[in-house]
Amino acid sequence: MSGVAIYATMQAGNTNDLVIQHMPLVKRIAYHLMGRLPDSVLVDDLIQAGMLGLLEAVKKYDASQGASFDTYAGIRIRGAMLDEVRRSDWTPRSVHKKSRMVSEAIKEVENKKGRDAKDSDIAEHLGITIEEYNQILQDSVGCKIFSVEQLVESGGDVLEEGEKDAIEPSNILGKEKFQQALVQAIKQLPEREQLVISLYYEEELNLREIGKVLNVSESRVSQISSQATLRLRSRLTEWLDEGSIS
User: Fold this and answer.
1) What pTM did the predictor assign?
2) Environment class of residue 119 by beta-carbon count within 10 Å: exposed (0-12), middle (13-18) or buried (19+)?
3) Domain boundary, last residue among 87, 105, 128
4) In sequence order, which ranges of 89-236 are alpha helices (DSSP H)?
5) Is the predicted pLDDT of residue 152 greater than 90, yes or no?
6) Which of 3, 35, 103, 175 would suit a FRET pair with 217, their CA atoms being 20 to 30 Å apart?
């Protein structure tokens, strides 16, 4: 549906039709996010939050800003779900702190060696064992908001707590350069990390299915995905620290 058609529909007061039409989108996003969240998160809670996000999208969408309604609604829905998850995130601050520490270590190792930092490189830099390093990655998965999607939607700050401002169409368009940089950063990830990101976000496989493709355990897929996100954050530091994203 074009932006003009959607705007006309909304102006005519047929918002219910628009909401009903996009309810499958809410469910699809909810079940996709569930693959990255702990068992304590209920899909019904995500769907409920997503429906509120959809209603907000219908209420605030402005076709003149240039973003399509599907794009705008998708981000509103995901944002509402992630806000709900964030509100119930009881992850200890120590886990967030260790995740940031790993991200900084990746950046320092890669700047020093001029290549992708390996697990062993990062563990050695931190003065910990591989087992301890893998546990940090596993714990990071439990942060709940730990994902590439959150990296995009929050302007990159996947590890900090606190609510984010609502995303308007103009803000979406203003993030284009950052998203382009993110795409390039993903393409430069180590092969296995890039494959995990691709299988999850493009092919929409869950962690168990990805594990079967790679012939590794589901927990190992979680660790690889966590490391990929931390590596991306370390490589996009200039964007995040300089406030380049509106």
Assistant:
1) 0.58
2) middle
3) 87
4) 93-113, 119-126, 130-141, 148-153, 169-174, 176-187, 191-201, 207-214, 218-235
5) no
6) 103
